[in-house]
Amino acid sequence: MLRPPTTPARTAVRPTHDGLNSALSRWLPNCYYAPLGSVTERDEPTGSERSPQHRSGSVHSSVYAATALDVPLESKLHAPEPRAGWVERPALVQRLVDAHAKLVLVDAPAGYGKTTLVAQWRCDAAEGRPFAWVTLDPDDNDPVSLWSHVAHALHRARPEFCVQPILEALRAQPPDVGGAVLPALVNELNTLPGPVVLVLDDYHRVKERSCHAHVEYLLSHLPPTARLVLTTRADPPLPLARLRSTGDMVELRMSELRFTPAEAAALVVRTAGIRLADPDLADLVGRTEGWPAGVYLAALSLRGHPSPGTFVRQFSGDSRYIADLLIEEVLSRQPAHIRHFLARTAILGEFSAPLSDAVLGSTDAAEIIGTLERENLFVVPVDENRGWYRYHRLFAQLLRSQLTRAEPGIIPTLHQRASGWHQEAGSPLEAISHAIAGGDVARAVDLIAGLWSAYADAGRMGTVRGWLQALGDDQVAAHPLAAHCAAWAAALAGDRSSLERWLPVIEAGDYPGPLPDGMASLQSSAAMLRGVFGFEGLGVMRKWAQLAVELENDPASPWYALARTGLGFNLYLSGELAAAAAALEEAVVCDPPILLIRMLALSCLGLVAVGQGRLLRAEELTRAASDLTGLDDVSETPQSAFTHLAAGALNAARDRPSEARGELERALRLRRRVPGVSPWPTLEGLLQLAEVLLGLGDRAAADLLDEAQELLASLPDGAEAQLARLKRLGQELAGRSGGPALEPLTEREVTVLRLLRGTLSLREIGQELHLSPNTIKTHTRLIYRKLGVSTRRQAVEQGHRAGIC
Fold first, then answer.
1. How far apart are CA 553 and CA 560, in angstroms?
2. Helix or strand holding residue 340 (H, E)
3. Residue 478 pLDDT grade (very low, low, confident, very high; cuts 50, 70, 90)
4. Pick from 753, 781, 787: which is nearest to 769 by CA?
5. pLDDT tens profile 416-434
6. I need a labelling partner for 332 at 20 to 30 A (CA). Which of 52, 152, 362, 628 fits?
7. How many CA atoms lie within 13 A of 191 on its CB side?
8. Are the beta carbons of 617 and 607 closer than 8 angstroms?
């Protein structure tokens, strides 16, 4: 199968091109490795960030090498180390050392030294707790990236912290972060023998609402020995008022982080080698309002200035003036070939000599990079081998703005060259990012189409959706291959409305030859989407599944097996067991390389074998499917429910109802995690479990049958066999109830029963009676129990016979 890669993945962030009229806050120093400054403030990444493996420039053998959870991105887990140029802030550090609240919030605009302050706290002699550090970036809007890096950081800080339970939960498809990942993480925190401080640096880069909900969950379950630290430029959507009122939060904001005159003086001395006169220093602090980045920019321009006092008196916080200063005082002093190199490589985010030569069409990049590093010209090495570099964030923004103004037409070409280099180097994530930034939609779509299935297999569809969102709906609609990827992403996520939107685009499209993911054609893709998921009913599903079988005729393709599995399962649902077995045997014999498809084929064939009474064969197939479920951590995916369906049916056939019940209940739990996925496995589980519960005398079967009836009511086409099973089971349940109701209905229950005669849904009945849906469901269950029925229709009929309605 296409397996998740074994090296870390990073999606390149699309570079932006800010003009000189941008807000002042955009022109900020970043002294994570500032040559002379003291303000440590990471700005937004401007390009791809790369793993150490990629930084060597070597070509990766697999395009799927970037999705593993086991190897974190090292640069994200390292806090800034102490530097001689830092301005010490002992009072603020002591306040943090003494903090006992569960949340420490360092919240201020960019350039206020938030990261530096927390790094100083970490290194303070009075602080003995280990720190787990994660530097966030836009990729951490994907919960898989966020929580895998958090787990690795905690393990680095506390080796006793076991990451495996968290990583195993993250491998589920989709990961159940709230129900599995975070409880496992909290459990591990509770077992630690000592305290730990978890720092999420640059938390403002997280925009995904679910990630904020996950952090809120972590805060509410944080053990007393743990602290959570957030550095951010904006208030996070967390219950800050409640945390503040209960004393569970210590916060440092802009007013606390402003430089005092003494701190500003220290920064100017260390950066410019100048001691300003007291009036000039007070003037500088007043003009900048203590904004550390503003002081830093002023200090940079003060180096070698003949009249510091005059400069301070003329200094303004206007962003245009700051940008002009940097242009005049830094860029204008560089030779033409250096300025040319700086401007054109600034779009890369991170760069190496081979990449730079490919983008610029040059041969001297290594020499120029050596010069930049030696002269501390805002270049920062990002790996220990000094093979990859980035520019100071502020400097990179300035360079890109200059390039946008001077040569806007060259920017797409530069991105396209970078994309081509990354594609050849085996780093598809960066290739996709630069292709999108360069407007090379065709390349981006081809790359996405070749990667989406592996990312789906690894539970990383959030990354795929991010690429598609970056392309935009108009481009997806204009490129059938992109619509193909979007449709499969929607189907796997249970998003039927999006699937219905993209299917016509696929069906009307044309693409020569097999698709990059191996499917035979766009027509085959549409046929499998309709024939495997069955969102339009079993009748329509059968027609499209048969077409998919005709189109996918290469036994070496994994889609050959999937097409036959879809048809075989449809035939099984229709009661055509011999035909189902024939189709599924073809799927199994071809040994599909994708593990999930093989597991589906074996499980479905196991269901058929049970239906045929071939229990030994069913046991063999079910065991083989279960063995696959234990591989590659797919046991928690919705698809693995098929294995439990087959095992449940086999146990029921062998008169082992307790074992059957356990397997079937697990199958339903797995399917219900993604309620919008194909309804037919869920329906099969409902009917099988209801039959088992009836045999055990468990009245919970009534709820299952009612759920099955509601599902079938929306998809009746071709479901005659299921309707017949539902009717038979309902009659059996009614026969076991001993006749009409043994208890009288309450007045409210009578009212609900009369409304059940109409077409209103339970939710609409609740709205009619001004009651919640849960209350109506409770009344309905009581009505069923009292009348001895299992479905809505039976309740109405029994009520009519009893003269109630």
1. 6
2. helix 336-345
3. very high
4. 753
5. 999 999 999 989 889 999 9
6. 362
7. 13
8. no
Distance CA 356, CA 390 (A): 12
Exposure string over 478-515, b if 16+ CB within 10 A, otherwise e = ebbbbbbbbbbbbbbbbbeebbebbbebbbebebeeeb
Please give, one letter per residue, the 3-state secondary structure of 229-266: EEEECCCCCCCHHHHHHCCCEEEECHHHHCCCHHHHHH
Distance of CA 679 to the CA centre of its chain: 24
Euclidean distance between CA atoms 115 and 109, whole angstroms: 12
Q: For tokens 């046929």, name the residue.
A: 527
What backbone torsions phi and psi does residue 137 show, to the nearest 5 degrees? -145, 175
The total of other beta-carbon atoms located within 10 Å of residue 731's CB is 13
Starting at the earlier edge strand, list the strands of the sheet with 226-232. 131-135, 196-201, 226-232, 103-107, 249-252
pLDDT for the residue numbered 225: 94
Which residues 6+ apart lie within 8 Å of 362 measured at CB?
341, 356
Measured at the CA of 228, the angle between CA 227 and CA 229, to 5 degrees, comes to 120
Residue-wise pLDDT tens digits, 366-380: 999 988 877 657 677
Q: CA 705, CA 724: separation in Å to the nearest integer?
A: 12
The CA-based angle 508-466-2, given to 5 degrees, is: 80
Contact of 348 with 47, CB cutoff 8 Å: yes
* Tokens of residue 443, six digits: 């390349």
Q: Enter the tokens of residue 203.
A: 């938390």
In 3D, which of 270, 201, 187, 210 has the Cα closest to residue 232?
201
For residue 501, what is the enclosing H or E element?
helix 496-508
User: How much is the pLDDT for 589?
Assistant: 92
Question: How many whole angstroms separate alpha carbon 447 and alpha carbon 433?
Answer: 10
Cα gap 506→494, rounded to integer Å: 18
- CA 498 → CA 174, 479, 489, distances in Å? 18, 16, 9
